[in-house]
Every structure is written in structure tokens, then in C-alpha cells.
Design goal:
391 residues, mainly alpha, two-stranded antiparallel ribbon, elongated
Length: 391
């Protein structure tokens, strides 16, 4: 019954998290695009204190959007806020982290070959990792460094790369990537909760009080929003990374993630400059493409050295029964699975040959066994790969 409840919670929270994330990221992308696309206001609008305007058509209708320099003279009767998309995304994401990696710590969070954590030791380390990383960002954003876009970006990049390396030393490969994603998501949600929303509440207060809003509040909210804009693409990659063990299963997974951060940053910067109409040339995209090709070549799996002659079918089945069938059986004996993950059963030779290519990839990247909970040895891994490749 525990495995059944686990599956339902996993499914519901993942679905809810994705929906909330779509709403948050969609709104974020739209408002950044809107802000960068504003045109010089007409003389009439400029006299009203309007900074920029935009005309658009969508869904069969025309829209006229304006942005005030600081605020309108009179507060609108209905003012729409955007915050629950961010809060819901973070709440469902942390709940999913708790279900997958805290409840299932022995299977998903702990890698005894790295650190032989107890369940509560691993959970405490996870919480501390996120809390310290978040605190460092808040110290940076409140320091004079925030006035230098390039300087701030460089320091934050170093902090996140170090975080990726540290997570890789502490947690299982899959969990390491997810923790970097959870840290980035916490930073982004914190930007909304601790920066953007308080600034916007101050702007509203000033307008309601008949005061001229202070520009510094608007500037701080925009700065945090811009940071979120650049952090979004690497975060989305991490959200889907568990489908690609060739990335987080790489022996230098933290460097892979750092490279992907650079590539996605270049793409995001190109799109922002293009939206601004800055006449930017596609150099950013070309560099991103070349880096992607170089990364793919560097990550290409190396041949696994086999030990002696290729094993026979019975020996291959013996290894899979010992190391794989706990989960990948018609009736798994693992506490975390009541049905075989992805429907993959590895109980006879026909099944092994059916999933041959997927097994080779999972074994070469050390993705399977998950967290190596069945203690597959390097020799067993090499022998099984050699047998599969010979078929």
C-alpha cells in the first residue's frame, strides 16, 4: 500500500507542479517580452506619465497596453497581481522533493558510494544545502554587487557551479541535479516573495497615499524579475533532466550542468536582445550551437572495458536477477514499486534483448541500478554490457 500511495502522490504533485510552472514561466516570459517590446508613448500618453506603449492582436482582438513610469495618478479599481503562480510552483515542487527524495531517500537521495548518510542525515543535508544556497543569493542581491550586471552574473554563476559540484559529492546523481534545480527554483520564488511583491506593495501604497512612488522600488523589482528570466531555461532543463541519464549520470555531471547553464544563458540573452530590437546578430546562437556540439562530443560514452571472455546468457540473467529484478520484475520486491518502472521487465533473455539498447545506455551512464541500491559491481556492469553488445 505504501508504494501505491507513493505513486499517487508522485503523479499528482508532478502534474500540479508542471501546471503551476507553465503558468508562472508563461507569465514571466510574457511580461519580460512586454517590457522589452514597449515603444515610445504618444504625446498624449506621455503627458499622463506613461513610459511606453504596445499594440498587439491575439485571440481575435486588438490590445493596447501601456506602462507607467512609476504609477498612475489614481489606483485602478481592479489591479491584477501575479504571485500565486510562483508560490504554487515552489510549494508543489518542494512537496514533490519531499515525497520523491525524502520519503524515498534510500532509493533516490542517498548514494552510499559517495556518502553513507542515514535517511535523516541525508534529509538534513538537503535542507541545509538549499537554505545556505538561498541565503548566499539573498546576501548578494542586497549587496552593492547587484549594481553590476556582469559582476553579479559571474559571481552567481560560480556559486551555482560550486553548488552543482557539492550536490554531486553529497547526493545520488539524479538527486544532485534536482537539488540544483530546487535551489534555483527557491531563489526565483524568493525573488517574488522577498523582492518583487514588497516593492509592488510599496508602489501601490504610494499611489493610494497620493505620493510619488520611489523609483528604487520599481528598479529592484525589475532586477529580480530579470534574474528570474535568465534562470528559467536552466531550471526547465533540470526539471526534465531525469529523463536523460547521460547528463546527470556523467562522471563530471556538475561540469555538464555548468556548460548547459552557459548555453541556455546565451540563448536567453539573444532572445532578450532580439526582443529589444537591438539589431543583435546571431553570434550568441552560433556560439551556443558550437558549445552544444562540443558538449555532446565530450559526453559521448567511452567503451567499457570487459573482463575476459563475454559471459553467456545464464550468467547475464544471473546478474540481472541479482541487480535489476528487484524493481524490473512482473511483481517487484522493492518497497517503492508495485509495478515495474516504465513497464520494463528483465526476468528472461527475451526481455533483455527487447530492452537491449536502453539497458546499454542505462548501464554505461550508471543510471541503473537507480542509486546503485543493489550494489552492482563494475565488473558486473562491464560483463552485462559486453554480453548485450555481443547479441
Amino acid at each position: 500500500m505504501e508504494g501505491y500511495i507513493f505513486d499517487w502522490l508522485n503523479m499528482f504533485l508532478r502534474w500540479f507542479h508542471v501546471l503551476a510552472g507553465i503558468a508562472w514561466i508563461g507569465a514571466s516570459f510574457y511580461f519580460v517580452w512586454l517590457d522589452l517590446s514597449l515603444e515610445k508613448p504618444s504625446a498624449e500618453n506621455e503627458a499622463k506619465g506613461i513610459k511606453g506603449q504596445l499594440s498587439a492582436i491575439h485571440g481575435g482582438g486588438f490590445y493596447e497596453v501601456v506602462k507607467y513610469k512609476l504609477g498612475p495618478q489614481v489606483m485602478p479599481a481592479n489591479l491584477h497581481w501575479f504571485k500565486w503562480e510562483a508560490y504554487t510552483t515552489w510549494l508543489t515542487g518542494f512537496s514533490l522533493l519531499a515525497v520523491m527524495y525524502y520519503w524515498g531517500a534510500n532509493q533516490y537521495l542517498i548514494d552510499p558510494a559517495k556518502v553513507a548518510f542515514s535517511q535523516w542525515g541525508a534529509i538534513g543535508s538537503s535542507v541545509l544545502f538549499l537554505a545556505v544556497g538561498f541565503a548566499i543569493y539573498e546576501l548578494l542581491i542586497k549587496s552593492p554587487l547587484r549594481n553590476s550586471n556582469k559582476g553579479f552574473a559571474a559571481v552567481l554563476f560560480v556559486v551555482l557551479v560550486f553548488s552543482a559540484w557539492l550536490a554531486d559529492q553529497l547526493f545520488s546523481d539524479r538527486a544532485a541535479y534536482i537539488h540544483v534545480g530546487a535551489l534555483i527554483g527557491s531563489i526565483m520564488a524568493g525573488n517574488v516573495f522577498l523582492g518583487i511583491m514588497p516593492s509592488q506593495r510599496e508602489l501601490v501604497r504610494a499611489v493610494n497615499a497620493g505620493e510619488t512612488p520611489e523609483a528604487r522600488f520599481a528598479e529592484l523589482a525589475k532586477l529580480r524579475s530579470t534574474h528570474n528570466n535568465y534562470l528559467t531555461l536552466p531550471l526547465v532543463f533540470i526539471m526534465i533532466s531525469n529523463h536523460y541519464p547521460m547528463t546527470y549520470g556523467h562522471e563530471h555531471a556538475w561540469l555538464v550542468l555548468a556548460a548547459i547553464g552557459v548555453i541556455t544563458g546565451l540563448i536567453r540573452h539573444f532572445l532578450n536582445l532580439k526582443t529589444q530590437g537591438a539589431g543583435v546578430k546571431p553570434a550568441y546562437l552560433i556560439v551556443a550551437l558550437l558549445l552544444t556540439l562540443a558538449l555532446a562530443a565530450w559526453m559521448a560514452p567511452k567503451p567499457v572495458a570487459t573482463t575476459g571472455n563475454v559471459i553467456n546468457s545464464d550468467q547475464a540473467l544471473h546478474i540481472t536477477h541479482l541487480r535489476c529484478a528487484e524493481c524490473h520484475a512482473a511483481q517487484p520486491t522493492s518497497d517503492m514499486f508495485k509495478t515495474p518502472p516504465a513497464g520494463i521487465i528483465l526476468e528472461d533473455e527475451a526481455h533483455l534483448l527487447q530492452y537491449k539498447d536502453r539497458m546499454i545506455s542505462a548501464l554505461q551512464t550508471s543510471y541503473m541500478p537507480l542509486g546503485n541500491i543493489t550494489a552492482m559491481t563494475d565488473d558486473e556492469r562491464a560483463q552485462l554490457i559486453g554480453w548485450l553488445q555481443a547479441q
